[in-house]
Structures are given as C-alpha cells and as structure tokens.
Amino acid sequence: MAKILIVDDDVHINDMLSEALGTQGYEVVKAYSGTEALMVLEKGRPDLVLLDLMIPGLSGEELLPKIKDIPVIVVSAKADINDKVGLLLNGAADYITKPFNMQELLARITVQLRNANKTTTASEQRVLTFGALTLNMDTHILYIENPDVSDKSECKITRTEFAILKLLMQNPEQVVAKLTILDNISIDTPDCTEDSLKIHIHNLRKKLKEATGKELIKAVWGIGFMITSKS
C-alpha cells in the first residue's frame, strides 16, 4: 500500500489523519515541522504528502518547492483564493481547507495516487532496458551503460536500427522471425526489405558489440534473430 507523509505541527490533527489513513491500509510517516519533513524526505520517498502551511522550521510554502515528483495535497486553514491559486501554480497537486471532511480528503488522496500511478506507468512504458542497454522510445536514443565511469553514453543508431532493436528488446531472450520483424518495424520504418534487413541487423550488431564488448544480437539460422545475454 502507498506511503503517506503527514506534515502538521498540530498533534491532534496529525494523529487523527494517521489513524484514518491507517484504517485505509496506508503506511503513514509523521513530521511536525518543515525541517523534520525535509529530513524524512531525504531518508525515503513517500507516495504522497499531506502538507500544512503554518508549521515551524521551514514553512509549508518554503517546503513545497523542495518536494520533487511527489503529489502534495495542501491541508491548510488559509482559505484565500489567492493562496490556493499560488500554491497550485507552485507545485501543489491539490488544496483542501481546514476544517475538512475526512471522506473528501480520502477521496482526493485516492485520485492523486491513481494519477501518480498512471504517470509512472506511462513513463516506464516509454523506456526499454536490457542489460547495459537503455532505449528511449520517445527520443529514439540508445544509451549504453559504462561500468568504468558509472554513467551512460549515447550510441548512435539509425531509424531502422531503432525499430529492429525496439522489437528485439520487447521480446528478450526470444527468437523473432524475420517476417515478424519486417511486419512490425514497418510502423517505424516502411522502407526496410528482407534483403536490406540483414544489412541493418549486421550494422546494429556491430555497434552494440563495439559499445558493450558482447555479441548481444544472434541469428537463429532459418528463423530469425534474438537479443540475448547468453554467450
């Protein structure tokens, strides 16, 4: 279940929220100041933050821009529309005014967690990885991990090579027939023929071997090709 960080210096509200969230199955972490919340965030990443504004140490307004890529629901007694608009523009995912209805807050939490999960899933689907290879399907850029420098370097590939590699990485350790490759890559590169396919794969295999030192793409005689980590 999702982990939620509650940041509120009011012990009664903090405990009430913690109990309500706990009964819903959420894992709860508490903080009573902006400074304490920042320390909690440095130790681990929650899935959502409930943030009061008027807290000691770092205020809620000061803490908000320091919370990256985590949905934040501001829970505050400040009801002025300008406060709400400003916080939403500065990164808050939602804003609810104290005193609040617990069922409404739980519903808003559910919505934000659902949206965050959709975003994460979509992001994960746009990147393929296999061993040292990372293929970005949006930019068509191939990155090769370099263990010597703990970094990734870009490997230049053509449009057709990208289409071939994408299909093979979507089916790791499996033989993909030549006709299947031609049918599928026609979406990305319609000009590839059975004769030119051999040339494209030869060039791709060469680039990958030079970059990784390994023969990652192997031909299965009479059938097709596969990407494999097995020697």
Give an overview in words.
The protein has 2 domains: 121 residues, Response regulator (Rossmann fold, 3-Layer(aba) Sandwich); 100 residues, Winged helix-like DNA-binding domain superfamily/Winged helix DNA-binding domain (Arc Repressor Mutant, subunit A), CATH 1.10.10.10. Helices cover 43% and strands 23% of the residues. It has 8 helices and 12 strands. β3, α3 and β4 form a beta-alpha-beta unit.
CATH class placement of the largest domain? Alpha Beta
- The SSE string, one letter per element, is EHEHEHEHEHEEEEHEHHEE
How many helices does DSSP assign?
A: 8
Name the helicity range: 40-55%
- The side-by-side strand order for the widest beta sheet comes to 2-1-3-4-5
- What is the average of the pLDDT values? 87
Give the assembly state of these chains.
single chain
CATH T-level topology of the largest domain: Rossmann fold
CATH architecture assignment name of the largest domain: 3-Layer(aba) Sandwich
- Alpha-beta content class: alpha/beta
Shape: elongated
**Gyration radius from CA atoms, angstroms:** 25 Å
Low-confidence stretches: none
CATH superfamily of the largest domain: Response regulator
Quantity of strands, as a count: 12
Q: Kindly give the count of domains.
A: 2
Largest sheet: 5 strands, parallel
Distance from N terminus to C terminus (CA atoms, Å) equals: 40 Å
Portion in strands: 15-25%
Quick structural overview:
The chain is built from 8 helices and 12 strands. The protein has 231 residues and is of the alpha/beta class. The mean pLDDT is 87.
